[in-house]
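Inputs:
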Amino acid sequence: MMGLAAMVEGAAAGPLVLDRLIDEMASDAEQIEPGADALERRAVSLVRNGDPSAYDYLVARYMKRVLSIAWGIVRNAADAEDLAQEAFVKAYEKIGSFREGEPFGPWVYRIVTNLALDLLKHRTKFRHEEITPSEPGARRDHADLRAVSGEIGERIDRAIESLPGMQRIVARLHLVEEFDHAAIAAMTGLAEGTVRSHLSLAKKKLREQLSDLYGGSHD
Amino acid sequence: MTDSDKFFERLQADARRLRFEPDEATATRIAARIRERIAEQPSAAVFLARWFRPVAASLSALALAAVLGIAWFEKGTGEADVEAIAAGSEIEIAVAGDFYRVSN
């Protein structure tokens, strides 16, 4: 029981929901293999069986990461909030098609990435309220500023934002969010080879721009 | 580890700080909005009822129209049949042991 409580440490789901999940898991502990994702699997199972309150746990667990991914792509706190909300609602609506036993995170990351990329396409098409990559700080609000603190952070942020199109998104997902090539490919719908190619070009440009920060010569 | 690897390892360590960190109020607000949106989702019964009502109404209207149409058609063709039979048949009349035939 203590182990289960420790597992959920850090997740900001309501205490009632967590207590109930832990109680329910303890009651059929023999049927569920132990592990860090046992609570998540249980929550998914409950939601699939028509208990929406168990979804709070999944939202609390992945909220920050989903918001960060969205913000990294669209660079606007209000849009990122809307996208995160939309992604979780969409994931809830499609939970019937979610393969039970698989981690929920990559699934919702893929949904939010697709929504964010769609928004970017929409912005490019209609060019309203657009934030151009050359002036990433121009429209940052209070929440955005929290993310880029420190001189080095700002230099890196500017360098990443100066990259063109998908290079910028792939570089951010890899360097900031620390996803590997396969995960980025799954999230963006690009082939893994294309992700590697974007990343290789992005790294080359970043190294040119940031060589004074970390020293080292160009290869 | 090459120079390039070291460079990007250090870059990644610093870039990690660029993650967007929402405050508790933001996270709570979004979670509440999600909960609200989910609560708005119709249950299976409501969802079915929403579909079923217009479908049932359309089918009823269709059935009524079909019944009325058939009744009207049968009425129309019934009268026509009697006239047709009358027009196409000979009538025999017997008067004082003699038979007379009348036809159109």
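The two ends of chain A are 53 Å apart (CA to CA). Flag for discussion at group meeting.
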